[in-house]
Fold Leucine-rich repeat-containing protein 14B.
Amino acid sequence: RATMKSLRFLSAEAFVSNAEFAKKSLSAVAYNLFPLLFKASYLLEQGEVIHDLVENWPLVDFNLGKLLGATVDYQEDLSHRTCSVCLESCLTGLRDYVLNNFSPYVKRLKVVDLTGIKDVEVQFCECKKTMGRWARTQLLSKLCLELVVYLQQAQCNPSTFEISIDVLIDLFVTERNYELVVEALLKKCCCPLKICCVAFRSDNLTLQKFFYIIKLADPSLLRKLEIVHNVRLEMEHLEILFNSIHFPLLMSLTLPARTFNVQRFTATDEQMLTNIGEKMGEMTQLTELCMSFSILTGRIQKLLSPLKTPLKMLDVSNCSLNHADMAYLANSFHANHLEALDLSGHDIPELYPSTFFKLLSHSSSVLRSLTLEDCNIQDTHVNMLILGLSPCQKLHEFKFVGNPLSSQALKHLFTFLRELPMLKNVEFPVPRDCYPTGITYPIDDASVCRFDHQKYESVAEELNLILLQANREDVKASTPLFGSYDAAVQETNNELGAYLIKSFKETLEKFTASFNKMS
């Protein structure tokens, strides 16, 4: 559906559609029209014009999320377009803003905010080439270093050295761009563009490198910390991290798989867990916590009870929670504030049905996202699930892939789901009757694709028809067999794959060496 454009926006499109004309005329443009022209240029992917607009930016701030968001002149939000042409032009324009001594506008720019851009699976830009978070980190670091070198070598206008612009960015660091980002952060004091890391994600890094760069990134500014794939952070390292570094503004924390493993806990480990809980309690802004694929049986209360601020997002998928853990969550002050909850990998109907529904009841007035993948939800549980979800009128997203539900049960569930007024995204399982008889759950990766694809397509069509009959074209229903889209993994999957092969090879070599010694 086409979004209406004001006459102002249509005029802006006409102005920027000719890059040469726009360049010549820019000096005559009123400074308050720059945001309008920028959005029009971004929509039309006019890289040259974007570059020139940023190079001559006359305002105090440049907030990419706001500039591309819904405006009076054009309601469509373009912040999910990570168009490579546009973003590269934007960042090189920023570098040239520093170097341009002939701009007709006074240099007033103090803050550039690049954090509002959203990485999504489907891109609508014409070039179809995206610049993800990793590539943005790489390019900004490279441009900052180029600036430092240029300012050291060239005869620059003295006023250039007075420029100081805070560039707010979500950094994404892996082994491949580590050296470049470290160098850029080390030379921050010499560079007019000051990298300010608001969110930090780390994949494929040794612990030594992770500890070094996280200190360089200035943890006092950090609002989000994600330590995800192939960073071997265990509980003792987490305790050291929290003891040695203060995170006063941290709102969101994601820890890697197997950070905790209570199966091999000693008295020292229990004390360590207590200390970590207390340190998290000192993070007064912390409202989002992801600890998936750790073994936390019976220890949820010890970790979460010191928190002084209620959690809005909790991911404890595949954490082997027991009844005491679920009872704590259901009765804790967090329950009434949870907007996103992931309990995947727990046999909810078998282990703690009533406690889970109590938790759902307490969070129902605010819950926006619920993930119950591989939870052994069967046909006999659907009516109870509907009862539990009925009060969740603000639910935007419901993911329940990997549950042994029949086509009939899914149709029954969808007839209910279409009545949830704010629902936008549903991820549902391949129906059980599409798989061969005798399939066991959870289904292993080798068997997950071995189903009757024709029958599945037919069922999926019926489910979408149920939504369409209720005029719910706004709801996207899909079956991601290997998990939801992860923009970061998608962007660095080659490096991630190479790292996994290397790790496997090292493990194999150690095993062979041990075997040879025994022989």
About this structure: The mean pLDDT is 93. Residues 432 and 439 are 8 Å apart (CA to CA).
